[in-house]
Design brief:
Chain lengths: 109, 244
């Protein structure tokens, strides 16, 4: 149960460079009046970030693109999207996504 | 969360949906996703040679999934602290965008209180919080803390459990839970698109983001590709919307 100096420095340094981007925009931008185009731009950030993360999660594995029929992530993602649209429930989406994925990985050779 | 809704809402009495416990409740759907990633992080950190105390400190002080995986890997590989810290800086720069996107909904708080709101910001808590904004112009501070702290404790517990499990399992992804994270992102994306009144444009922006994120990750790190994709896709969305 010990903490080495090197690891401690990494944790503190990494925590600082993670903390600043997390808090700075909230602290500053909430104080100033943003122009309308700026607000509109920020309006699209959530959609863009989530879509970009999903794209990388389901289309790229170990730096490569698996073919569509081998890509269990992609095969599971399609019904997961439909379930999300149908149920509009985050919990239902996550649970059925995981079950679908487990089933597909078992079913797809 | 379209601009048309701005100034509709008043911040009079604390309603049930603004309570700390409501934030805790709204965090529940994301717990499974981050539990699985946290378990994996715990296993990876333990097998990288970190002690339980170091893993506890890492999950509580750093509190960032991708950063912890990178730190563990680079520590095991003997990288210098400076190299590790710079890599993590780039990986977590996307938080700038998440924090900025939340800022219009926290105008009612002082900078210091916004610091506490942002300190525990993650992809998941951002996603849940931004979905709230379809209905309102402010996000409740107490609700946000309920959401953030629940996610934080879940992450810490998952890391510790993973570190303990590391002696028995080497590949935590075998349990099919690795899809919990993409499934959660899918849920958040779909809910935020359905909650706004510009489905066609949102879907177009999402497709552009996917194409850019995947395409540019061939020539740059995947975390930089996320930032590039977000900036390009959001700019196109903004320009097209202004244009119409």
């Amino acid at each position: 149960m010990e903490i080495s100096l090197g690891v401690f420095l990494v944790i503190v340094g990494a925590a600082i460079v993670t903390f600043i981007p997390r808090v700075l925009p909230l602290m500053i931008l909430s104080r100033i009046e943003l122009p309308e185009w700026g607000l509109r731009w920020l309006n699209y950030v959530p959609i863009s970030v989530m879509a970009a993360l999903i794209g990388q999660e389901i289309l790229i594995h170990d730096g490569k693109f698996p073919s569509i029929t081998d890509n269990v992530h992609l095969l599971a993602a399609i019904p997961t999207f439909l379930i999300a649209i149908k149920t509009r429930s985050l919990l239902a989406t996550v649970l059925s996504g995981v079950i679908l994925f487990m089933f597909l990985r078992w079913a797809v050779p | 969360m379209s601009l048309e809704n701005v100034h509709v809402e008043t911040t009079a009495l604390p309603r049930d949906e603004d309570r700390f416990m409501k934030g805790v409740k709204d965090c529940v759907p994301t717990l499974l996703g981050y539990l699985s990633i946290g378990l994996a992080a715990g296993v990876v950190q333990k097998t990288a040679g970190l002690s339980m105390a170091e893993i506890a400190l890492m999950s509580l002080v750093l509190y960032a999934g991708s950063a912890q995986f990178i730190a563990a890997g680079m520590i095991a590989a003997g990288s210098s602290p400076m190299a590790i810290i710079i890599t993590i800086l780039f990986v977590n720069l996307r938080h700038l965008l998440l924090s900025a996107a939340l800022s219009p909904y926290f105008r009612h708080l002082s900078p210091l209180r916004n610091m506490f709101v942002g300190a525990l910001l993650t992809d998941e808590t951002f996603g849940v919080a931004i979905n709230q904004t379809a209905k309102k112009t402010n996000i409740s501070e107490k609700w946000m803390h309920g959401l953030n702290i629940t996610a934080y404790l879940n992450w810490f517990i998952a890391n510790m459990a993973g570190a303990l499990l590391a002696q028995w399992i080497s590949d935590p992804e075998k349990f099919g839970l690795e899809f919990a994270l993409p499934a959660m992102f899918i849920g958040i994306l779909v809910l935020s698109i359905l909650g706004r009144s510009k489905i066609k444009r949102d879907v177009a922006v999402a497709i552009i983001a996917v194409v850019v994120a995947v395409g540019s990750s061939l020539v740059m790190s995947s975390s930089m590709a996320i930032i590039v994709a977000t900036v390009i896709a959001s700019t196109i969305g903004m320009v097209v919307e202004k244009w119409k």
